[in-house]
Amino acid sequence: MAEPKPRDLAALLLTLTVVTGVVDAVSFLGLGRVFVANMTGNVVFLGFAAAGETTLSVLASLTAVLAFLAGALAGGRLARTDDDYGALRQATAVQAALVAAAVVLSATLGSGSRLGSELLIVVLGVAMGLQNAAVRRIGAPDLTTTVLTMTLTGFAADSKAAGGAGAHPLRKVAAVAAMLMGAFAGGLLQLHVAMWTALTLALVLILGVLVVLQLNRARGRRRPAAAGP
């Protein structure tokens, strides 16, 4: 598969970062104060819930962690059977199918019942685990798509003010802005419209990434033929 140009790759990963913001807004605001992408938050929530915080659910946080691990396991398998960008393409295709299923679930079962919420947490957790594993294989600095802690640390610690080289400051800022934008858009739709509309936005963004990856793959196939006699 043809590798996307560095600028194209950054745009794809920033788009997936927006997806993370949207999906975590849906899960936190609509599925009982749980994250499906931010596993640090879930581990902390598990501790709070175990300590007796009644507004948090041990079951929801544990379900999200296990679903994310299942998705990351599947993404890790893909990463070992294909090249970096082929793995990302395949993981994104499966992620799109899972988020499409979440759109249908949210529009039918909804999140009003415990069963509906748990099913959505499982589907979305697997989808985000897949994304994280595939992106991790590529190893693009400061564009993990799901975690901003190291991005913000790098922005400060590597800055010229700290005596560093100040490499890629705009990329780091863009990653934070992408997550914020996704959280805002997802929160707006979740709070004022409906859960399925926020998940539909996430699905459209994922499909956009998948289309670009497919086009790169098609271009990569055409080049060897064009180079022939």
Automatic annotation (TrEMBL):
Keywords: Membrane, Transmembrane, Transmembrane helix. The keyword RNA-binding does not apply. It comes from the Bacteria. It holds the Pfam family DUF1275. The chain crosses the membrane at residues 56-79, 91-109, 115-135, 195-213. The keyword Transmembrane helix applies. PANTHER family: SLR0142 PROTEIN (PTHR37314), UPF0700 TRANSMEMBRANE PROTEIN YOAK (PTHR37314:SF4). This is DUF1275 domain-containing protein. It comes from Amycolatopsis iheyensis. The lineage of its organism: Bacteria, Bacillati, Actinomycetota, Actinomycetes, Pseudonocardiales.
